[in-house]
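Hey, I was hoping to borrow your eyes for a little while. No rush at all, and the record is pasted right below:
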Amino acid sequence: MAVVSMKELLEAGVHFGHSKSRWNPKMKPYIYGVRNGIHIIDLTKTVEALEKAYNFIVNEVAKGAEVLFVGTKKQAKQIIKEEAERCGAYYVNERWVGGLLTNFKTVRKSILKLKLLERMEEEGVFEILPKKEVARLRRKLLKLQKLYGGIKEMQNIPDILWIVDTVREHIAVSEGRKLAIPIVAIADTNCDPDLIDYPIPGNDDAIKSIRLLTSKIADAVLEGKKRREAQGEAAEERKATETIDESEKRLFEEAMKMSEKYAELDRDSSVEE
């Protein structure tokens, strides 16, 4: 059974890409067509890609891999935090600090400062310090919590990155590639899929789309952890569904034909050469 249904993808608007003028030609294989200047993503490709990514994460987490969720845009912040916390993954949802991966030793020093300030607050140290000093320390604490709260317990660089909007998070992508960390990400029509190890064609702007795809990645992490706990290093690998069900393909085709939204869709001539 597929990880996600065509109905879920359609309802979440995963098929809506960016305007035709903003596209990256490398995304052509994943584009179904265009309507009113907006590229439409081929959701049959999304189902297949998500299946591969899900399978990869399950099997790697079962072997002990740690995943870092990354998404700092307004639409993604809360979702990244909620889903990462739900599956026990690390996350960055405010601002990507340059060198977070490539200079992790320095980042660890900032994390230690964060932990020290939190301990001072918990132990009541702030209550006996001058008000001005407390105000300064609290500002520092809040800043560090925003930047590093989601990776506070991360002892080493992660084994896998889940990224929402690789164009916005280009520094995270660059650092991940430098360190050969596998990248799983939503591939909207304006991105370069060659930079992503497991690109999942989809809308990286709509909240429903971000939530659906991120929740599936979180589910994969949880499934991997269950397999790890049940069988340890000898955990049986999950087998990916190789082909998309024909009924799912028909549902996508019918949605494209029947909905008035796609009345002007020209599948054959819309994607530029």
User: Anything to note?
Assistant: Confidence is low (pLDDT under 50) at residues 262-273. The chain has two domains: 6-99+157-262, 102-155. The CA atoms of residues 69 and 91 lie 4 Å apart.
